[in-house]
Amino acid sequence: MMQSAYEQSPWRSNLFVVWNELVKNMKFLMAYPVIFIFWAIFPIFWFIPFILQGEAFVGGLQSANFAQITGSGEYVPFIVIGAVLNSYVNTLLYGMGESIRREAYQGTLDYVFAAPCNKAYVLIGKALSESVSSTIFAASQLAISTLLFGINLTLGMMLPVFFIVILLILGLYGLSLVLAALSLMYKQSHDVSETIGYIFYVFSPVRYPIESLPSWAQIIGKLIPLTYALIIVRSIMLLGMGLSALYWEILALLIIDAFLILAGFYMFNWMENKTKKSGTISHY
Amino acid sequence: MEKSNKEYRLREVKCPAGFNWVNLKAELRAVWESNVKAWKIDLAYPVSFIRQLISPVVFMLPYLLYGLVLIGGRYSENLKQLVGTGDVVAFIFTGYIMMGFIGTAVWAMGFSMRREQWFGTLEAIYVTPASRLGQVLGMALHSTVHQGAGTIIQFIFIYATFGLALNIGGILPALGIFALMMFALYGFGIVISALSLILKEGWIVSDSFYSIMTILSPVAYPLTVLPTLAQQASAIFPTAPALIGMRSFLIDNYVPEVVGNVFLHLIVLGAVWILFGVFVFHLADKYVRKRGMLKKF
Amino acid sequence: MVYDKKSEVFSIQTINLTKRFAKKKHRGVFGFLRRNQSKNKHEKNNHVTVALNKVNLEIRPGELFGLLGPNGSGKTTMIKCLSTILIPDEGTVTVNGFDVQKETSMVRASLGMVVGGERTLYWKLTARDNLMYFASLYKMQRAHAKKRIEELLETFQLSDRADERLEDYSTGMRQKVAIARALLHDPPILLLDEPTLGLDPNFARQIRSQIKELSEKYGKTVLLTTHYMDEADQLCDRVAFINNGNIVAVDTPNRLKAMVKEKELVEVTVYRPPVDIERHIRSLLPDAEVVKLIPGNEDEGNPSRIKIIGGTAEDVETIIDALRQKNVRIGSLNVGVPTLEDVFIKLTGAKLTEGGMR
Fold it and tell me: What is the DSSP string of C227-238?
């Protein structure tokens, strides 16, 4: 006889929620193969202008000034790495910020909230599906970039890079829980997601080294998890550094991740209770 | 149920139609009201409105900072060899103005029908006698003014932060080129709006064209950096000749990458894109009504 | 209704109106390996639904005409073909004397449309802004539009809140704005597609009385689609039943109800009937035309009903015995008093509140 849902251990039922949410969202994605192919290929077009700009300004594929600041003059892999990691930010921020709004639009939000599970695990499931799809897209974009732009990619780099990507995703999970909490109350979640996306884009070294920003801007940049992820991944891939040499950057990333995750869980639970009292959950 | 035995007749309907001044005035009024409606909806989301005003600065900054870091200063010797001027700030600023107006065509206009579908108002609009194109042109007007405001903010920011040396006497002819470019872009935008109505994932059409046009337009690099085939392809879009023409008037010592009469080029492009756009839109309109694709998004 | 029967003036006329929809078949990733028996390539790859099948309809000026049918019967498709949103595949359609395919602009100027459901207006705009915008799409002059908008806001008692955004309105108030929009340009014809759908009874009553006034006082031709039989019965001069894209019957409500004679209708309300009760009663009344179990929702105080059409009063004892044999609790039993739903069931075998049966 099947065990009643209420007799299962809380961890098991939470994992069950996460798994089902992941499967559901992946099925949605697979139902739109055109979208899938688009995200696997098209973001490359967004950074091609930067590569062409580099060629026009320095007349080659190496920049002496870049080498002075970052240790490597190769601006093409610099741009590619920035674009690929930034795509995680885009999909997780917007995907999570909009996830609740989409449930409201489809009319399923009330039912999700009426369920006895902890809703944060629903969001973790959504975030996990966004991460899986982002990783597939990022891998595809990286593979195409390697072929088109001759980027040096070895198997030995992949494991530490993957580890740092996971750390980045954890931090973004926390941030997206904060955004999901805000979207419960303030229906224009898209604005909040976009504004945060802007901050990441300008203050993180996505297109340029963080050292090229004024000092006040660098302080803001150093509070963003993407900054450390970019510095670490570029150091591994362009300068051949190992994880042990990047101890402080990894520690900073872990601290920011922990803060964002705790803040995310707290805010989301607080907002959920607040919106239930005010009855504004499904008013999108 | 009994009603009085009145003689029932078909009722005469007074509605302007055909090629006459009264009808044209009515259609223009519909375009204007579409524009007003778009502004009112925009202003109902104040955070989004402000964000959209500053987004041209946000997205231009990476081009600027990246360019400055690449060469370690403001002047690029290689750029000077290519186009006669090495001032990367002036080059990028004049190029980046274009990005916002490409967005006018592919997003504001291109997505106008989809947006109405999302609101749930597309069918309500379709049962009115005003032309559907009025919707698209109303969004074009709204977005053009919106982008214009963004461009002014961009200019103020660049002037204050980096200083900007532009040729004041060249502003008027540059504006003339800009007007011709917008005329052609509107035609292109009408094509995109037609395609996004037909295709289920219309945003992919808009995004794809935005990316392609950005690459083919010399926004952050001279046209000569592109492969030959890409340079030839850029001639069918109004942004490339317009940018080159505007730069030649606004930036001292600028040597255009392409020789030819930019005004004539843009007039021809404008006529072609407008006619093609209206034709494709008419076909798309019939297609979606045949297939019943107007229902809510 | 007294009409000149020889008159050939029709506000709305459809001749052999046909509309089909093709939807691509999802055959899965390896679907191409599976054999399909259809010879026709279009049918191989698409589900073809005939939404309207050679529909002939004639609505006279000033008539309040009801189109009654279950979900999926073709009502909305009909409205869309008349309003130029859909292009028919076959047949001709004229509205106010204008062909919907050749004189599209004049057709649009001749009618106002209201659909049920909330999202047909701009919620971030005020009622006044919404109406002004649509007035421009109806090519009204600004001064005239302003005056007309004030009149309509007054008529629908919205003047006090005309400058509030629609997102702050109730559903009923939004529907009033939608009706006001349809009346902006004073069209001779109104198409109302389930206008009371989702409204509470009070608002629905107000809307119905406004619809009646539009037809009787202002002489507008109104085509009303609904699956609420009471609404059609109350309001309409004539009613057409539509099922699976076919017009099954057209006449006045009284004449339609007369098709089901009083003694031929028996209705029993029952509680928790077994699944096979319908079959059981049918086996005991082989001469009955229709035996239909209409499930209810007893938790909401809405018991199930069994309708027997074509039986006689003498069959009542047989029915009661059959129900007792199955230990079914009987709520009430009525003989006679047919409704439009009874006529619909007799003609089609389907309920008005279920999808059309094939």
Answer: S-HHHHHHH-SE
The residue that leads in pLDDT, C313 or B119, is B119
Task: Tell me how close the Cα of B184 comes to any Cα of chain A, in angstroms.
Answer: 23
The encoded tokens of residue C211 equal 């619809």
A77 occurs within a structural domain: yes
What's the number of domains chain A is made of?
Answer: 1
Cβ atoms of A164 and A227 closer than 8 Å: no
b/e map of A211-221 (b: 16 or more CB within 10 Å)? Answer: ebbeeeeeeeb
Q: pLDDT tens digits for A129-143?
A: 888 888 899 889 989
Task: Find the domain containing A259 and state its range.
Answer: 18-278
Structural contact between residues A179 and A268, judged by C-beta atoms closer than 8 angstroms = no
Lowest average pLDDT, out of B17-31, C39-53, C321-335, goes to: C39-53
- Helices B88-103 & B133-161 angle (0-180, nearest 10): 160
d(CA A229, CA A235): 10
Distance CA C105, CA C120 (A): 21
pLDDT at position C150 over 60: yes
Q: Are B281 and B132 in contact (CB under 8 A)?
A: yes
- Residue B48 makes CB contacts below 8 A (sequence gap 6+) with A188, A190, A191, B42
Q: How many CB atoms lie within 10 A of CB A93?
A: 23
The residue that leads in pLDDT, C356 or B186, is: B186
- Structure tokens, A280: 């504004």
Which residues of B fall within a CB distance of 8 Å from C136? 26, 29-30, 32-34, 130
Residues of C in contact with B128 (CB under 8 A): 108, 134, 137-138
Interface check A65 vs B, CB under 8 A: yes
Nearest to B201 among A34, A190, A212 (CB): A34
Residue A228, SS3 per DSSP: helix
Residue A47 is inside which H or E element, if any?
helix A43-58
pLDDT level of residue B15 (50, 70, 90 thresholds): confident
Residue C25 DSSP symbol: -
What is the DSSP secondary structure assignment for residue B87, as one 8-state letter? B
Cα–Cα distance between C74 and A39 in angstroms, integer? 39
